[in-house]
Amino acid sequence: MNVFWYMCAPDGAYPWQPEGSRQVDYGYYKQLAQAYDHLGYTGALFATGAHDVWVLASALLAHTERLRFLVAIHPGLVAPTLLAKMAATFQEFARGRLLINVVSGDAKMLGAYGMMLPHDERYDMADEYLQLWHRLFSGESVTYQGKYFSTDGAKLALPVSESIAPPPLWFGGSSDKALEVAAKHVDTYLSWGETQVEAVKARAAHYGRELEYGIRLYVIVRDTDEKAWEAAADLYDRMDDAAITANQRFVSRSDSVGQQRMTALHGGLKPENLRDLEVAPNLWAGIGLVRPGPGTAIVGSPDTVLRTLEAYQKAGVDTFILSGMPLLEEAYRFGEKVLPRLDVSREVSNARNYTWSTLFDRDLTTVKSV
């Protein structure tokens, strides 16, 4: 089992309110990275936020020993050749601890960076982008003229096919287009509190591939189930109308299918009883009222949380990206109460099972090696 913890602002006991927010700066990030490394987490997710993830991850690398760095990227915001160079450099300096989280985002967020592609076309672009990425990391020199990208003799100078392992690709997305990109290109498919293992597995098999599967969740763990739900109730009591309205206004403009499914779990409405948002045993959707993205949490005692994680594992999920609020205290709480009872890996396989020549013959008819 791979267990990652979250690494991104904002943070605090209830960060949707000013009085519940915590200053997140370089010193605090160092505390987080060293805590995750010390506690034995597999790695940390460097999600897109206020800080640039490449600068942040690079700044924290020297403060860790074994922690893996799962760094988010948005296809198309940086040219594939430049991103491959950045990743190869980090992978060399990190001694193989880099993982790439491919995020297609939504129209509102990407529009701020000048990308105006509609939802489905973003995945078509990502398909082309990742095919070029794989050719570069195979050590090829590539000249290519495509719909979205062009290269002229593109090649990585670092010996990526010899001493530098290509960083594994992770990916999340719920639409049909997203599942197709995942099946063709990535190593680990991520979901938000839901399992689509069988659907993705079937598509991957079409390309002669097998994937690993992960899930992104919050965790509220206390000594007993009762105390865990009391902690959830404390968060719930602080979800005021203003915070809920602001978040629901923000997510309503998203064209992300995953975000739409998260919103459907609560409909933007706060019932009187927080347990009305318990969408499955010990799985609570209340956090989605005030936070965008994955908004479900496992709530319970260490035994309950352990059983829930094991149930996901039986469904085919071996990787968990978890978080709590605040990040530091909850990383310690989970790291001391649950993590020692899990068979946690500190290594993530770099193994590949691509049949790229077949994919390129079908999809990149204009690519030629030079």
Short description:
The chain is an alpha/beta fold and 370 residues long. The protein has helices at 26-39, 53-61, 80-93, 107-111, 119-137, 176-185, 197-206, 225-237, 241-252, 257-264, 302-314, 327-337, 356-363, and strands at residues 2-7, 43-46, 68-73, 98-102, 142-145, 150-154, 169-172, 188-191, 212-221, 278-280, 283-284, 297-300, 319-323, 368-369. The strands form two sheets. Strands 1-2-3-4-7-8-9-13 form an eight-stranded parallel β-barrel, surrounded by seven helices. Strands 6-5-14 form a three-stranded antiparallel beta sheet, with helices on one face.
Description:
The protein is of the alpha/beta class and 370 residues long. 39% of the residues lie in helices and 17% in strands. The protein has 13 helices and 14 strands. The chain has helices at residues 26-39, 53-61, 80-93, 107-111, 119-137, 176-185, 197-206, 225-237, 241-252, 257-264, 302-314, 327-337, 356-363; strands spanning 2-7, 43-46, 68-73, 98-102, 142-145, 150-154, 169-172, 188-191, 212-221, 278-280, 283-284, 297-300, 319-323, 368-369. The strands form two sheets. Strands 1-2-3-4-7-8-9-13 form an eight-stranded parallel beta barrel, surrounded by seven helices. It has a three-stranded antiparallel β-sheet with strand order 6-5-14, with helices on one face. Strand 1, helix 1 and strand 2 form a beta-alpha-beta unit. Helix 1 packs parallel to helix 12 and helix 3 (80-93) packs across helix 5. The N and C termini lie far apart (42 Å).
